[in-house]
Design goal:
Chain lengths: 345, 444, 423
C-alpha cells in the first residue's frame, strides 16, 4: 500500500494577541495510505484544524511539506487540490442558489463541464437522495438536507482523497448511521481515501482503519484502533458520577492503595460549558449549555471485580455515587490516557 | 409591564452604543457629510453676510464700444464695465480687499473677442463679457430703437461661476440703462419744453452748443438711488436670515435617523433568525410589550442621535462662521418637541417596514431605499424646492415635515403645530399598522 | 480564465436573484439624477408657460403707482395670476369669496395654495413720486436659494418702476439747475416731471436691460446645449455615486462568504487565489459598469451629450469602476464583520461623492474645498467627464484623471491582494 498523503515536519507559527509567537503545529509527520479511512483526533487547540487546513491548501505552512498524490500542496497546489474533496463542518453553500446550481458551480471549479458536469451532478443528487428537490433553494432545506448537499459538493469530481470534517455534527442518529455507511461505501466501492475528524469516539472506532492522535502540535500516537488500545494496556475504565459533591484527594489515594489492580484514579469536578465546549464567559451570549457531572475515573485491570470494593470505600467516605459505568478499553480510554483530557466538546 | 418594556429597550440601547459600527452610521457619517456641505457652502454662512462665497472667478472684459458724442465729449458706456470690474494697476491692497466685485471676480481687459471666447471654450475663464461697438450709441434710445445687448459668453463647464458673471453683467447693464434712460427722458422733456417755450428754447440751444449746459446726471447712474427695494421675508413676515446649515444639517440629521430607525426595527428580524425573539415570546411577555420595547429602544436611539447632531452641527456652524452661534432658534421647548415627534415618526416607519419585509437583508435594502428616497425628496442632499411638481410628493416624507419645523424654529417662528401633528399622527399610525401585521405574521 | 468568469457569473446570479436590486440600480438613481439635475439648473432656462402661478397681493396703497407696478409684474411673467386682483368668475384664486387679509394670506402661503405674497406699503405711490425709498414686501415659502420666476418678475417690475422714479427725480433736479428755465408754478413743474416720467416709462417698457447669454456648449446649428444643462452635471455625478453604492457592498459579501465558509471551500478547490479574487472582483466591476450604463443611457434620454470621444468616455468609466473595485478589495482586508462593512460603505459613498463634486459642480465651492475634494477619486473622474461633456475634450485632455485613477487602482490592488485572508 502506498501513501496518498505524505506530511513531513509540517509546522505553523501564529502570533498571540500579545505578539508572542507560538507553534500551533510543530513538526507533524504523517502518511495516509490509499484506500484507508484515517481519523485524526485531538482536543481543542491541539493543532488538528491547523494541520488539516495546511493539507487542504487553506493555510501556508511555516515549514515542512505536504503532498497529495505526490503533488506538493505548496508548490503545485492546483494539481494537489484536484485530487482532494473537502466536506467542511460548516454548510459552505450559497443559500439563495438551488441545490443543483450549487453543485454545478462548484463542479465547474473542478473543471467539470458540459455533459460530464450534468452527469456527475445527476449522480451526486441521486447519491445524496435529493433529485426531487434539486431545483429548490438551499435556504429552504432542513438541516439534514443541507448537510447532504454539503457532502455532495465534496464528491462531485470523484476525489481520490476525501476530507470530512465532523460530518455528523447536529445530525439525528438515523441520518448519522446513513452518513457513516456512506463513508464506508466510498472506501469500498470507489476506493476513496478518507481523512475523517470527529469528536465521537464511538464512530471513529467503528469506521477507522487507522487513527492518529495529535496534541500540542505533534502526533503523539498513530496506528490501528487495536494497536492503540493494546498500547495503553488492557485496563477497564470505571466512571463514577458524583454530581456536585466534593471528592477529597485522600479518597482517590485510598482507591489506589486498597483495591487490587487499580492503576490510577482521577477526579473531574462539575463544569458548565458553552456550546463550543469552552467554559462560558457570559451565559447571556450562549444559546446552549452542557452541564458535565463531577466524575471519578478509575483505571483497573479487572474492573468488574474491583467495583464492590471501590463502592464500599466511597460509601465509607460518605460519598453518594449517582451512577457507575464500566467500560472495556476503547479509543476514548486511549485518548484520555494519552492526552489527559476527555474528548468532549 | 413598563419594567419589561424598559428592559427590552435598554438592551437595544446597550447593544447599539457599545458597537462602533453603529456609531459610525449614527454619528460620524452624518457629521462628516454636514461638515462637507457646510464647508462647500461656507461663503453663505458667515454672520455678517459680507463675505463673498465665491472668489476670483476668472473673467475677460472685451469693450468694443465705440462710444458716442454728446455735448462735445465722447461718452463710452462700455468703459463702465471695465472700470467696475478690472482693478487699476496701482490699486492698494486695502482698496482691493474692500471692493466686493474685485473680490468676486478676477477680471482682465482685452480687445480680442475671439481669443476671449476661445479661453471660455477651454474653461480657462468662466465667462467673457463682450460689449458691442454700438452699445453707447444704442443707449441714446433714439425713436423706436432698442439697445444692442451686451453679450456674456459663459463656460458650460463652470455653470455657477458663469451664472454669477451673467447676473453681474445684468446688474451693471441695469445701472447704465437707468442712467441713460434718465438722460434720454430728461433731454426729451427739455426739448419738448423748448418747443413750447421759444424763449427758453433759444437760450437752451445756445447754451448747449457753447457747452454751457453741463447737467449732473451722475445720481441716476448710482444704483443706491433706486427708491424701490424688494424686502424678502419669511412666510410670517420676518426678514429672511436663512442658514443653509440648518436646512441641510436638519435634513442630514433626520435622514440618518431614518437609517437608525429602519435598521433598529430590522434587528427584530435578526432576533427572529437567531431565535432570541422566539425565546422572548416563550417567556410570559405579551407580544405588544416586546414590540413596544423595541420601539422605545429605537425611539431613544433616534432622539439621542438627532440631539447630538443638532449640538454637533452648532459647533460646525460656529467654527465655519467664526463665532459661537446657536443656529436652531430660541425656542428650546419646541426644538425638543420637534426632535421627539420626528423620532417617533421614524420609529413608527421602522416598525411598519419591519413588519412588511421577509428577511433582515431585504429589510436593509428596502429600508435604505426608503431612507434615501425620503432624504432626497426631503432635501437632505439637494434643494428640491425649485421643482414645484415635487412639492406634493415631498409632503409625504418625514424628512420634509421635520426639516420644515427645524427651519421654521431656526427663524424663530413657532407655527409648527401642523408639522408636529403630522409627524405624531404618522408615527402612531405606522406603528399600529406595523404591530398588527407583525403580530399576525408571528402567529403563523 | 473560464473559472474566473464562472465565479463572476455565479456572484452576479446571486446579486440579481434579489429583485430589490433593481430599485437600487435603476429606480432610485434615475429619480435622483432627475431631481439633482433640476437642482443644478436643468429646466430653469425658461419660466413655465403652461402652469399658473398664484401670487397673493396685499395692496395697502391702492394708488396708480401700485397698479402700474402690478401691470409690470404681469408683463414680466404672463403665468402669474395676482390674487385677488385677477380673480375670475370661476375663482381661479381659490378664494371662495373670502376677502384676502394678512392672516388668510399667511395660511395660504403655508399651505402653498399661493406661492408668494406681495405687500405694498401704504404711501407707496407718494413716496416714489417724492423720490423717497420704499420697500415692497415679498414673502415666499421658497427658501432664499431657490431660483424663483415670481421673484424675478417682481424684481424686474421694481427695477422698472424704480428706474422711472430715478429719471423723474434726477431729471427734475437737472431742470432745476438750469437758471434760465423758470417754471410758472408748481403745477408747471409737476407737469415737466410727468413728461420725464412718461418718457422714461415708455423706454423702460421696451425691456431695455438685456444681456445676451450664450453657454459655451451651445450648438448654433441644432440650437441645443451640447451638454444638456444641469443634467450633464447630475447624470455623471449620480452615476458615479451609485457605482460606489453598487461596488462597496462587495466587502460585506466577501465577509459573509468567509463566514458561511464558501470562500474557504473555494480555496480548497483546484482554483488559484488570484482566480477567486479575480472572479469576485470581476462580478462587482461588471455590476459597476452596468450601473454606469443604465444611468448614462437615461442621460441620453434627458438630452445629455457625452462629447466626441467615446473611447475616452469608456476608459474613464472603466478606470473609475476599477478603482472603486480595488478600493473595496483593500477595504475588505481591514473590515471585521458585515455590519462594519455596511457602515464603512455608507460612510465612504456619502462623503466621497459630495467631496468629489458628484452632488454639485466643484466650481461653486471655495478653492480649498476643491483641493481637499481631489482626495476623492470621484473628483478626478468628474474632472474627466466635465472635460469630455463641456469642453469637447478627448483622450489627451482626460489623461491626467485617467492616470491618477489608475495609480490609485494599482495602490489599492496591491494592498488588497497582499493582505487578503481566506479564513
Amino acid at each position: 500500500m502506498d501513501a496518498i498523503v505524505e506530511v513531513r515536519d509540517l509546522a505553523k507559527q501564529f502570533k498571540r494577541q500579545n505578539g508572542e509567537a507560538f507553534f500551533a503545529v510543530d513538526g507533524v509527520d504523517l502518511d495516509i495510505m490509499r484506500g484507508e479511512i484515517f481519523s485524526l483526533l485531538g482536543p481543542n487547540g491541539a493543532g488538528k484544524t491547523t494541520t488539516i487546513a495546511m493539507i487542504s491548501g487553506l493555510l501556508n505552512p511555516t515549514r515542512g511539506s505536504a503532498t497529495i498524490g505526490g503533488h506538493s500542496i505548496i508548490d503545485d497546489p492546483i494539481a494537489a487540490k484536484k485530487l482532494l474533496g473537502v466536506i467542511p463542518q460548516e454548510i459552505a453553500l450559497y443559500p439563495t442558489l438551488t441545490a443543483r446550481q450549487n453543485l454545478e458551480f462548484f463542479g465547474r471549479m473542478y473543471d467539470l463541464d458540459g455533459a460530464e458536469l450534468r452527469t456527475r451532478v445527476d449522480e451526486v443528487l441521486e447519491f445524496i437522495d435529493l433529485t426531487d428537490r434539486q431545483h429548490d433553494k438551499v435556504e429552504t432545506f432542513s438541516g439534514g438536507m443541507k448537510r447532504r448537499v454539503n457532502i455532495g459538493v465534496g464528491l462531485l469530481h470523484n476525489p481520490q482523497l476525501l476530507y470530512m470534517d465532523e460530518p455528523t455534527v447536529g445530525i439525528d442518529p438515523q441520518n448519522r448511521r446513513r452518513i457513516l455507511d456512506t463513508v464506508v461505501r466510498l472506501r469500498d466501492e470507489k476506493q476513496m481515501t478518507v481523512l475523517y475528524t470527529s469528536h465521537l469516539m464511538e464512530e471513529v472506532q467503528q469506521i477507522s482503519d487507522r487513527v492518529g492522535i495529535i496534541d500540542h502540535g505533534k502526533i503523539i500516537a498513530l496506528g490501528t484502533v487495536g494497536d492503540l488500545i493494546h498500547k495503553i494496556g488492557e485496563e477497564d475504565r470505571l466512571v463514577f458520577k458524583v454530581g456536585d459533591q466534593a471528592v477529597p484527594e485522600a479518597l482517590l489515594e485510598r482507591f489506589k492503595a486498597e483495591v487490587e489492580g487499580v492503576s490510577s484514579a482521577t477526579y473531574e469536578k462539575l463544569e458548565i460549558k458553552g456550546e463550543n465546549g469552552d467554559a462560558p464567559v457570559d451565559i447571556r451570549s450562549t444559546s446552549s449549555l452542557q452541564i458535565a457531572d463531577g466524575t471519578i475515573t478509575v483505571m483497573a485491570q479487572r474492573g468488574r471485580k474491583a467495583l464492590p470494593d471501590l463502592l464500599q470505600i466511597a460509601n465509607q467516605a460518605g460519598l453518594d455515587v449517582l451512577s457507575v459505568e464500566v467500560r472495556e478499553p476503547d479509543l476514548e480510554a486511549v485518548f484520555l490516557s494519552m492526552t489527559g483530557r476527555a474528548l468532549r466538546d | 409591564m413598563l419594567r419589561k418594556i424598559w428592559a427590552i429597550a435598554y438592551k437595544e440601547l446597550y447593544l447599539t452604543y457599545t458597537d462602533r459600527n453603529q456609531i459610525l452610521i449614527i454619528l460620524v457619517t452624518p457629521l462628516a457629510l454636514a461638515t462637507i456641505i457646510g464647508a462647500a457652502f461656507s461663503g453663505f454662512l458667515s454672520p455678517g453676510g459680507n463675505d463673498v462665497p465665491i472668489r476670483n472667478i476668472p473673467v475677460a472684459v472685451v469693450n468694443l464700444d465705440a462710444g458716442t458724442e454728446a455735448n462735445g465729449t465722447t461718452i463710452n458706456n462700455g468703459q463702465t464695465f471695465v472700470d467696475l470690474l478690472v482693478p487699476p494697476d496701482d490699486i492698494s491692497d486695502e482698496d482691493l480687499a474692500a471692493n466686493t466685485l474685485y473680490q468676486l471676480t478676477n477680471a482682465i481687459e482685452t480687445d480680442d473677442a475671439e481669443a476671449a471666447r476661445a479661453a471660455v471654450d477651454r474653461d480657462e475663464i468662466a465667462a467673457a463679457i463682450i460689449i458691442p461697438a454700438d452699445f453707447s450709441a444704442s443707449l441714446a434710445f433714439a425713436d423706436g430703437t432698442t439697445i444692442t445687448p451686451v453679450e456674456v459668453y459663459g463656460s458650460a463647464a463652470s455653470p455657477t461661476a458663469a451664472t454669477i458673471i451673467r447676473s453681474i453683467a445684468e446688474t451693471i447693464t441695469a445701472q447704465i440703462v437707468t442712467g441713460n434712460i434718465t438722460v434720454a427722458a430728461t433731454i426729451e422733456a427739455l426739448t419738448a419744453r423748448a418747443q413750447d417755450d421759444p424763449a427758453f428754447g433759444i437760450t437752451f440751444a445756445a447754451a448747449s452748443s457753447l457747452g454751457g449746459f453741463q447737467p449732473d446726471f451722475a445720481p441716476a447712474f448710482n444704483p443706491d438711488n433706486n427708491p424701490v427695494r424688494i424686502e424678502q421675508q419669511t412666510v410670517s413676515g420676518e426678514a429672511v436670515a436663512f442658514n443653509p446649515l440648518v436646512a441641510f444639517g436638519a435634513a442630514q440629521a433626520v435622514f440618518f435617523m431614518m437609517f437608525t430607525a429602519l435598521t433598529g426595527a430590522n434587528n427584530l428580524l435578526e432576533e427572529q433568525r437567531t431565535g432570541t425573539l422566539q425565546r422572548l415570546i416563550a417567556s410570559p411577555t405579551p407580544r405588544i410589550v416586546i414590540l413596544l420595547g423595541k420601539l422605545v429602544g429605537t425611539f431613544f436611539k433616534c432622539v439621542v442621535q438627532v440631539t447630538l447632531l443638532v449640538l454637533a452641527l452648532t459647533l460646525v456652524g460656529s467654527l465655519i462662521g467664526g463665532e459661537l452661534q446657536f443656529i436652531w432658534g430660541n425656542n428650546l421647548l419646541l426644538i425638543a418637541l420637534t426632535i421627539i415627534a420626528v423620532a417617533l415618526a421614524a420609529s413608527g416607519l421602522g416598525a411598519l417596514v419591519t413588519s412588511l419585509v421577509r428577511s433582515p437583508e431585504q429589510g436593509n435594502v428596502i429600508g435604505g431605499v426608503i431612507a434615501l428616497a425620503m432624504g432626497a425628496l426631503g432635501g437632505a442632499f439637494f434643494n428640491v424646492q425649485a421643482i414645484p411638481e415635487l412639492q406634493t410628493l415631498q409632503q409625504l416624507t418625514i424628512v420634509y415635515w421635520g426639516v420644515d419645523a427645524f427651519t421654521a424654529l431656526s427663524m424663530n417662528q413657532t407655527d409648527i403645530g401642523l408639522n408636529l401633528a403630522v409627524l405624531l399622527g404618522l408615527g402612531a399610525a405606522m406603528f399600529a399598522a406595523g404591530v398588527v401585521i407583525f403580530t399576525r405574521r408571528l402567529n403563523i | 480564465m473560464r473559472t474566473v468568469f464562472e465565479i463572476a457569473r455565479t456572484d452576479l446570479r446571486i446579486i440579481f436573484q434579489d429583485r430589490s436590486i433593481w430599485l437600487n440600480i435603476v429606480v432610485i438613481p434615475v429619480i435622483l439624477s432627475f431631481v439633482v439635475g433640476f437642482a443644478n439648473g436643468a429646466g430653469a432656462t425658461a419660466p413655465p408657460t403652461t402652469s399658473t402661478l398664484l401670487v397673493d397681493v396685499l395692496d395697502n396703497d391702492s394708488s396708480d403707482r401700485s397698479a402700474q407696478f402690478f401691470d409690470e409684474v404681469r408683463a414680466a411673467n404672463a403665468t402669474i395670476v395676482l390674487c385677488p386682483l385677477d380673480n375670475t368668475d370661476d375663482d381661479i384664486c381659490q378664494l371662495a369669496g373670502a376677502a384676502l387679509d394678512e392672516t388668510l394670506a399667511e395660511s395660504r402661503l403655508s399651505s402653498q395654495e399661493a406661492l408668494a405674497l406681495i405687500e405694498i406699503p401704504a404711501g407707496f405711490g407718494a413716496q416714489i413720486d417724492a423720490g423717497e425709498p420704499v420697500a415692497i414686501g415679498y414673502r415666499s415659502s421658497e427658501d432664499a436659494f431657490a431660483p424663483s420666476f415670481i421673484l424675478q418678475a417682481v424684481q424686474s417690475a421694481a427695477q422698472q418702476i424704480g428706474g422711472t422714479a430715478i429719471a423723474a427725480t434726477v431729471g427734475t433736479q437737472v431742470a432745476d439747475d438750469i437758471e434760465y428755465l423758470l417754471f410758472v408754478d408748481d403745477a408747471d413743474r409737476a407737469a415737466f416731471t410727468e413728461t420725464i416720467r412718461s418718457e422714461a416709462a415708455s423706454i423702460w417698457a421696451t425691456d431695455p436691460v438685456n444681456v445676451e447669454y450664450t453657454a459655451s456648449d451651445f450648438d448654433s446649428e441644432t440650437l441645443v446645449n451640447r451638454g444638456g444643462g444641469g443634467f450633464s452635471q447630475s447624470i455623471p455625478g449620480m452615476a458615479t455615486m451609485y457605482v460606489m453604492f453598487a461596488i462597496f457592498p462587495a466587502a460585506a459579501a466577501l465577509i459573509r462568504e468567509r463566514q458561511q465558509w464558501t470562500l474557504q471551500r473555494l480555496a480548497t478547490m483546484p482554483v488559484s487565489r488570484a482566480q477567486i479574487l479575480g472572479g469576485k472582483m470581476l462580478a462587482r466591476f461588471a455590476l459597476g459598469i452596468v450601473q454606469y450604463a443604465i444611468i448614462f443611457a437615461f442621460g441620453v434620454f434627458l438630452g445629455v451629450r457625452y462629447g466626441n470621444d467615446p473611447i475616452a468616455l469608456a476608459l474613464l468609466m472603466a478606470t473609475f469602476t476599477l478603482c472603486i473595485t480595488a478600493l473595496t478589495l483593500a477595504l475588505t482586508t481591514v473590515l471585521r464583520n458585515e455590519a462594519q462593512a455596511a457602515g464603512v460603505a455608507l460612510f465612504l459613498s456619502l462623503t466621497l461623492a459630495p467631496l468629489g463634486g458628484a452632488w454639485w459642480p466643484l466650481d461653486i465651492v471655495p478653492d480649498w474645498m476643491r483641493t481637499v475634494g481631489h482626495l476623492s477619486p470621484v473628483a478626478w473622474v468628474m474632472d474627466g467627464y466635465r472635460s469630455l461633456i463641456f469642453l469637447d475634450g478627448n483622450l489627451g485632455t482626460v489623461i491626467v484623471p485617467l492616470l491618477v485613477l489608475l495609480g490609485l487602482t494599482v495602490v489599492f490592488f496591491v494592498i488588497g491582494v497582499r493582505r487578503f485572508q481566506y479564513s
